[in-house]
Amino acid sequence: MKLLFVLGMPEIIAIAVLVLLLFGGKKIPELMRGLGRGVKEFKDGMKDIADKPDNEAADSVSEKPVKESLAQDSVKEDNAGGGQV
After folding, report:
1. Residues 35, 40, 43, 48: is their CA dihedral positive or negative?
2. d(CA 83, CA 80)
3. Residues 6+ apart with CB under 8 A from 24
4. Which sign does the torsion angle of CA 29, 30, 32, 33 carry?
5. What ranges do the domains of the chain cover?
6. Residue 66 DSSP class
7. Quick check: helix, strand or coil at residue 42?
8. Whole-number pLDDT of residue 85
């Protein structure tokens, strides 16, 4: 398999300079901190999903039957309409 996207040192330096010019030196730590938090939350979520047994994960997705859910949604829509003609 041939690698189509390989970053060498010149490409990494060019990207770093571009990011520095676009966001400025003061904003970069905030951006990286936010990116790190997002990656951590993603990993934690994936770990939680992997830790649950398969049948428990399927049960937690839908607690109530579909007919009940649809009936409640239609009642909400009727009530939300108010006095519209």
Report:
1. negative
2. 9
3. none
4. positive
5. 9-77
6. H
7. helix
8. 46
